[in-house]
Structures are given as C-alpha cells and as structure tokens.
Amino acid sequence: MNLILLAPEEITHDRLARVRDPRRLAHLREVHRARPGDRLTLGVEGGGIGRGELLSLDEHEARFALEEMGQPPPPALPVHLVLALPRPRMLARSLEHVTALGVKRITLLHTRRVEKSYWMSPELAPQKIRTHLVLGLEQARDTRLPEVELAKGFRPFVEDRLPDLLKGRRGLLAHPGMPRACPRGIEDPTLLLVGPEGGFIPWEVERLLEAGCEGIHLGPRILRVETAVTALLSRLF
Amino acid sequence: MNLILLAPEEITHDRLARVRDPRRLAHLREVHRARPGDRLTLGVEGGGIGRGELLSLDEHEARFALEEMGQPPPPALPVHLVLALPRPRMLARSLEHVTALGVKRITLLHTRRVEKSYWMSPELAPQKIRTHLVLGLEQARDTRLPEVELAKGFRPFVEDRLPDLLKGRRGLLAHPGMPRACPRGIEDPTLLLVGPEGGFIPWEVERLLEAGCEGIHLGPRILRVETAVTALLSRLF
Fold first, then answer.
1. From the candidates A222, A226, A236, A237, which should be mutated to test the interface with B, based on the most B CB atoms within 10 A?
2. Which residues contact A37 (CB under 8 A, 6 or more apart)?
3. Where does the record place the Ribosomal RNA small subunit methyltransferase E methyltransferase domain (chains A, B) (predicted)?
4. Which residue range is the domain that position B52 belongs to?
5. In what order do the strands lie in the sheet with A49-57?
6. Chain B residues touching A177 at Cβ < 8 A
7. For A181, which residue in chain B has the nearest alpha carbon?
8. Do residue A93 and residue A42 come from a single domain?
9. Lateral strand order in the sheet of B62-66
C-alpha cells in the first residue's frame, strides 16, 4: 500500500479523512507501523494525490488531516486489454499486475479454451474484482480505477463489439506463432488481445485477424497468462 | 506443463522414459488427461527437446517411447539477475516468472530492507528452489536449469563479487527516480540489479553506482517485485 486510496465519502469538508475498513487499518498498524504525526501518501479515488498527517489510529478508525492533494495520478497506458478469462487465482493476480501497470480498460472474454466453470467463480463478483483493482492502484500510487467488462460469448464480441473497439485503435493479437514480433515502445491507442492458457483456437485467430487485428508473438517461450500480459504491456509501451 | 522435463536417469538406453513422481503423474492424468498413444512434448534436463509416445500411465508410473529429441531449447536471455531476496511467496513466483522468461543466472541478495527472517524461509532450501525453476522450465518448454546463488551480505557482495560480475557485462541498477529510462531491446550481456519492496537505501544505490552500474527506472509507478522483474526483462531484451 504505497498510497492510501480514499473514497470521496471518506473525506469531510474540513479536509479530514476517516478510514474505517479493517484491511487498511490493519495495514497501517502492521505494515506501516504508523503513528500519529506520520505523514503518509493518500489519493482520492478518481482524483489527486497528496500527503496527510495521521491524527489518530485505533482498531476502529484512522483520521488524517489532508494537505495539498493536487498531484495528478501517473499517466495511463493507451490500451484496452481484452483478456481471455483466466482461472480465478490467475485472474486476481493479473488484474493487480495490469492495474499497477496503468491499464484502464479491461474486457474479460470467453473463448473456446476458457473453462466454462470460470464464469461461475466468486472472483468475478464486482466487489471482488474491485478489491484487486484497488490493490493494484495502491501499489502503483494511482487513483483511477480501471473499467472491467465481461464478454461471455466470443462470436457476439467479435461481431458486435470488436468493430467499434478497433475504431481509432491498433488491434494487436498476441498469439504464439504469429509472424511478427511484439513491437516496442509504441504510443498508438491499442486494443491488445491475449488468449487463455492453451491459446486461442485457429478459428478464433482467423476471426480476429479478419476483423483487422495484427498478429504478434513474444518469442518461442510459452508464458503463463500473468507473465505474458506484463511482458506484453512492458514491451509495447 | 508444456514440456515434461526428464532427468537423465529417467531415460533408459532403449529410448524409454519412466516418470514416477506424483506431481507429474497427477498432471498427466488430471490436466493433460493423457492416454496411451498420445504424443507429448518432452525434454531432457540440460539437453534437447522432442516428442514421446505415452505407452502406459497408472498411479505409479508413466512410460514413454522417445522419438527424436534433437531440438535445442529456446535461447537464454543474456542476463545475470541480482534480486534482493523477496518475501517467500513472492520469491517462489518470481523464480517461476524469470525462469520462464529465460534467465539462467540468479543471485539472491541481502539488502537493508530485506527482512532477515526471509533468509530462514524453507523456500530457500535447494530442493524448494529447484521446484520453482522446474515449473518455469516446464511452462516455457526449456530444459536448462538456472543457477541460483545466495549472497547474504550486501557489502561482501559489492566488494568481492560485483567487480567480477561486471567484467564483460553492462550493469543496470533498476531503481525508482534514477535519471534514465530502462533501455529497450538491448543485446549486451547484462547484470540487472533489482531492489526489495521499499527499494535499495541511498547508501546501497551509491555503492552500486560507484561500482559502475547505470541507474535506470521504469517510470513513476511503483511495481511489486514480481511485476517489475518481468517488466524489466521484457523491455530490456
């Protein structure tokens, strides 16, 4: 927790913030070992970043006196990530990685090799997803939550949603064996598509290429989804 | 397990391989759902990669008839990674990520902000470390195990070991706030140093820069060690 992310309703008009949830209180006590008088980095959800002085901390509440909160959050990556739904634990970690890296739009997609049971996982509950996004923001000192949408059918996604997503974006399909190596240091608005463990099936690859995506690869090594997504984002941007 | 990694002693002279450990047998049965007659990708530790036909599979043993095993493993990254010892779970995942990415030399280093208790973790037992390296190799279809060494003192490492490591290698110190952005797509033999959660302390940074390392950064976002290491390796090479 390199930043304490405050919901707007946790801030009162006299520049006082009250944090009451057990997770952040435990972290302040046990990891930060914070004491009244300490100045910590805070950010307002969707807003600015600054410092606050800890006024009091007990098991029920931490109170901060906020100072200037005008620093903007770090820049976002110009990417909309379309990720075949990973298995639940991999999903949790992948959401944290990509949020920390600065992704702001995520679509979780069904593909042939996504196990149908993954769509029933409690990890997909909005509150659970939000927990992982917040962890990523707190790690990277960011305040702007990514938007996450679910696309539970591959064909409806490709036919109804993909054409709009590709307007004004460069579509990159990351898939082993594609002819072109992943480009480096691009600045274009990008739609990045990453398949599941086991990859997209050939029919899916054909549909995505037909829709206008460029196929790219990361070399001969087969990477886990969470490693591949981090490696792709870091190499691309 | 995209490759079944065979120890040399698991191969008999008649090109037969026998796999008997419960982990791989369970994976073959439950994930691959392998049946006699299936042809799977196998590799010999430190050697070549090829295919083998599954002859039999029960709870005690899988037998394979090996075919041509002459394909070389994927190229290694030209890097020696020096990583401040992460907390045990992060260590396990980081070893898997960097092994999958092709790192072959890893030094785990003590620094001021590494908790001393981490050095007592059972995760540092050679057999435990090996388990994570093997998982990384199996993921990436590689056969060559990385070497992992422990450097339990920062000052002895800098004074006695670092000068030799920097002979013929470009030293890159990844640390927030360094003046230069992480370079992209280099091919130089490299020594990459990555600090702990919380970073190297200023005294450590000075010693490493004095020794000839270049300071590089990954931007304003503070990343978890496992995310940062993957992002650095992917951007550098």
1. A222
2. A53, A54
3. 76-236
4. 4-66
5. A4-6, A39-44, A49-57, A62-66, A16-19, A11-12
6. none
7. B185
8. no
9. B4-6, B39-44, B49-57, B62-66, B16-19, B11-12
